[in-house]
Specification:
The chain has 355 residues and is α+β, with helices and mostly antiparallel strands. The protein is built from 11 helices and 8 strands.
């Protein structure tokens, strides 16, 4: 399987291979879904120190791990989480200020608590805001009232209170709804589309793992040294290597997530999925099993990259998929497809020249 390496992408496209916690205020009852608290692992604490040492000693800029770099790390991390300044309050940012000149010391000691405290509060703010968005979408929007909206908020001040954020999101949703209506949909369809869009965004965020948080934070650390320096997790490293090789071992499907189900978008010509003639675009993959006799694993609601990992495996091995035919509608019966993984050439992604 082959996901595109983008953290902000709402649609993850892949080719299947065989291929401070005290700062976090709890969400009020009824505001939204339960928000888990993520924490670093012992391995990440150790890896944190190793990465910090490598960057400070061997990066070409030779930047010391000091208070100035610490401030850059905090800014980069906050930008990666809330680049439009639409979720955190100014009081949240003030609560993070003690970290501004201490993240360098935390990096040296392998202390990841600040990074996880910030992220856990971000998840709570996202859940709170999504609940409010759903309430706003039930109200009527007046398009005959002249208002303005600053769509580029990277340098905007943080909202002082929830009421400021409420007004910002009212205008933002009004703008998005008007954009959808102008594309040809009526208001009811626009409300449904926006409701699903923000529910999906929250659902994806709530599926974040400790490894995701570590990658986002380490990327912020790397970018503080240089905007072209990045940290790749083992999973993203493998995806990058696939791009460089222009080949992978898998079944040859392009996938995306739709309504918590992995959906086939395209088949790679000549790949196992294509040659089987049992899988078509718009089909849903609802369960995966390894080999001939391993038990089934239901993958509905899973993250796309986790499903991809279940389908990956060496060339020549068997993977079984439970498929829900897309074009047959909701009443379609599941079918089982047995595929032998093979090498897939990514010819469409190869660089080309023409005279």
């Amino acid at each position: 399987m082959y996901p595109l390496p983008s953290l902000k992408s709402l649609t993850l496209l892949l080719l299947i291979l065989v291929l401070p916690a005290a700062l976090a205020k709890p969400v009020e009852s009824g505001v939204g879904p339960e928000v888990k608290t993520l924490a670093p692992t012992a391995r990440q604490d150790s890896l944190d120190r190793t990465i910090a040492d490598l960057l400070s000693q061997h990066h070409y800029r030779q930047s010391p791990l000091d208070d100035a770099l610490s401030s850059l790390v905090l800014n980069a991390y906050l930008d990666s989480l809330d680049f439009s300044r639409s979720y955190f309050l100014s009081s949240d940012i003030a609560g993070f200020e003690p970290y501004r000149h201490t993240l360098d010391d935390a990096l040296k000691s392998g202390d990841l608590q600040p990074a996880y405290a910030i992220f856990n509060l971000y998840l709570r703010r996202l859940a709170e805001r999504t609940a409010h968005i759903q309430q706003l979408l039930k109200q009527d929007f007046r398009f005959d009232v002249p208002e303005s909206l600053d769509v580029d908020r990277k340098d905007a001040p943080w909202a002082k209170n929830p009421e400021e954020l409420d007004d910002l999101w009212r205008k933002r949703l009004k703008h998005e709804m008007l954009t959808v209506i102008l594309s040809g949909k009526d208001q009811a369809a626009a409300r449904e589309l926006l409701s699903k869009r923000y529910d999906n965004r929250l659902r994806q965020a709530l599926q974040s793992t400790s490894e995701d948080v570590f990658q986002w934070y380490m990327n912020a650390v790397a970018q503080a040294f240089d905007p072209h320096t990045a940290y790749f997790s083992p999973r993203n490293t493998e995806n990058f290597n696939i791009q460089m090789r222009l080949s992978l071992e898998g079944i040859g499907c392009v996938l995306r997530m739709e309504d918590e189900q992995v959906t086939v978008v395209e088949l790679v010509t000549g790949g196992p999925a294509d040659l089987s003639q049992q899988i078509r675009p718009s089909d849903k993959i609802v369960a995966v099993a390894q080999g001939e006799k391993e038990p089934w694993t239901d993958v509905v609601g899973w993250r796309l990259d986790d499903v991809v990992e279940k389908i990956r495996g060496p060339r020549g091995t068997v993977v079984r998929l439970k498929i829900l035919p897309g074009k047959a509608g909701a009443a379609a019966a599941e079918k089982t497809v047995r595929l032998v993984r093979d090498t897939i050439k990514l010819e469409k992604q190869a660089a080309k020249s023409e005279i």
